[in-house]
Amino acid sequence: MPMGSEFWALVYLGFEIAALFCVRAAITRGRTAQGAAAWVVFLFAAPHFAVPAFAIFGHHRYPGYIRSRRELREEMAALRTLAGQHAPAPLPPGEDAGRQRAFAELAGMPFASGNAVRLLIDGEAAFAEVFAAIDQAQSYVLAQFYTVEDDALGRAFAARLMARARAGVRVYLLYDAIGSHLPRRALAEMRAAGVEVRDFHAIRRSRGRLQVNFRNHRKIVVVDGDLAFTGGLNLGDAYVGRDPVLTPWRDTFVRVEGPAVAQLQFVVAEDWLWSSGQKLALDWTPKASAGTSDALVLASGPADALETASLYFVHAINSARERIWIASAYFVPDVDILSALKAAVLRGVEVRVLIPDRRDHWLPWLAAFAYVDEVRAAGVEVWRYAAGFMHQKVLLIDTGIASVGSVNLDNRSCRLNFEATLLVADPAFAADVARMLTTDFALAARATVGLSRRPWPIRALAPLARLVAPVL
After folding, report:
1. How many angstroms separate the CA atoms of 361 and 468, rounded?
2. Which residue positions in the chain have pLDDT lower than 50?
3. Is 87 exposed, middle or buried (CB count within 10 Å of its CB: 0-12, 13-18, 19+)?
4. Catalytic residues
5. Which domains, from first to last, does the chain contain?
6. What is the reported pLDDT for 208?
């Protein structure tokens, strides 16, 4: 044997032994049978590659996060009291009542009435409103984003936060270090001005664990507990159409006033408590609005007892009687969602899925080609948005319910990310969403070309990309 071969043999043996432990973990803790089987094959076939990959991507829960909600008992009680004071008028027994009840059970919170909800289409319009709201803040500002860039938009946002902090307003910024690129200089500048800045992953309860697979993908801004924003936009120049490759950037935010603001605020407060151990002193009685919308915030994540985001899509699709329209930046659905989409078509529902034709990430873009063929065969309409990059996450059920948030129609959003979406039960708001999506469909082309007729790199790589769908 060449010199040193005994050492490498022992290293390989160590990987094989470690692979056995990982196989046991994959079988006993796997989210799906398909995912568990894929990990088992990978671990046995190539343990020296699979064991490090499993250490990063194999976890399916976020231990300890649920403690945050337990520590916010008073805030949860205030939310329930507020929701009770703003309870919607009871719906007659039937599908509509059951539809809303299931969403409320998933959210762990009932719908609340008396909200004013308004669509903000694309980054320029959305951030103009967000900036104006921050400039008027009197008590506190909560801001949470997956991506915060140190570019023109990111610095403009930071400047407003710092200005309010210097004026005596309490300012909190929570970002995800996996999705953000904030140099120490920018962080130090904000902190010196009085802004409290936290990385969601700088968590004392799980120090030392690999966290790259669990991402806080939420985008929420709350001002004084009275006004909030959420949707698909992050803080970066690309999101206002300044990326030369992905311009124009198509995205959607919503502006919310009313009791649903407290629900969005709770999501940020929970994440802040988890990331810092600090319980924020906030106002849990938002001002009354002139709106009439029933609204509910559905927050999902890997700490949930159920697969909340996946069930959100499944229930929305199953409850549709006339149409279900979904706009998502990625299309990598799980088996349950695939079945729900097909079944909806079979019972006569118009099923439309709007996805981008351009790509920002190779793997999910490639995997989508394989899934598109499958659902098209069942009659699902898949439309590819061609007028720039489409990043919005919007859902429309029939003529009465719509949602805008951060949840994509992919496995990562459904099982690995922390997400949030605002569900609105209001025909007027649903009509606004329908008009917006109708305009988007006019700028898209219906997918009619199968994978077999695509260029050979896509034909070869799309099925391979689908194999790693559980972590996309």
Report:
1. 14
2. 1, 204-209
3. middle
4. 217, 219, 224, 391, 393, 398
5. 5-57 (no CATH), 66-96+110-295 (3.30.870.10), 308-471 (3.30.870.10)
6. 39
